[in-house]
Write a structure and sequence with these properties.
mainly alpha
């Protein structure tokens, strides 16, 4: 079981490594990769090849991507619910700001990930 967990964790980290170094990588998919990697690292810290600093960085990136994703989804709801129109610009601005925060967090995370 330990070997399988290690392989799973390394696979997630490889995918995450590719995602954070690709500006065109879908940010929603990257959010999921960050979340999965963080949860695996939190659950099995002794198996994680990530440095200790990476845990905090994963948490910050996950929070920022989550905030961006929430606002992004709310903006999509505006297209279906006219009564939300008055909030559209506020949510769009917030989504843009959160994405900038996420990009900064992802750059820091990228520096902490082990080389492939």
């Amino acid at each position: 079981m330990k070997h399988k967990l290690l392989m799973t964790m390394n696979g997630q980290i490889r995918k995450l490594h590719a995602g954070v170094h690709d500006a065109e990588f879908d940010r929603h998919q990257l959010r999921i990769l960050v979340k999965r990697t963080r949860y695996l690292t939190d659950a099995f810290p002794s198996l994680s090849p990530l440095p200790n600093d990476a845990a905090a960085s994963l948490k910050k990136a996950q929070a920022a991507l989550g905030a961006w994703h929430d606002h992004f989804q709310w903006c999509l709801r505006v297209q279906q619910e006219d009564e939300l129109e008055s909030l559209a610009q506020k949510w769009a601005d917030a989504a843009e700001q959160e994405l900038e925060v996420a990009e900064t967090a992802l750059k820091k995370l990228a520096r902490l990930l082990p080389s492939e």
